[in-house]
Amino acid sequence: MLDKLFMHYYYETMNFKVFYYLKTIKKNMEVKNMSLVKIKRYCQITLPSPIRKKFNLEEGDYLEIEEKEGNIVLRPVQVVQKEQLYFYSKEWQVDEAEADKDIAAGKMLGPFDNVDDFAKAMKS
Prior knowledge:
Elements: E1 2-13, E2 16-26, H1 49-54, E3 62-68, E4 71-77, H2 90-104, H3 115-123
Antiparallel strand pairs: 1-2, 3-4
């Protein structure tokens, strides 16, 4: 049945919080490694190094936080400047994909050495 056991036990004794960890693996089940983090001054936490490396998180990156089914969920996000929002619109991305296909198929003009060559190519 159980190859290994993984459980997280917690109890309080005389104002001490004690945590016990025991690994559990059931066949055909994914085991999630847990890390314990402490809330520090100004409610800050430090993300464990393996998590930061796995998600390529660095100082200054943004995380979206939400409460979901009684859990706190952190999700890495990219912040886009207002002037660059057009690039992420559906219409722009469709046009970008079309341009990429044309470039791959060799359907493009240029590069040009001067404006006159460009003007001639545009007229033809």
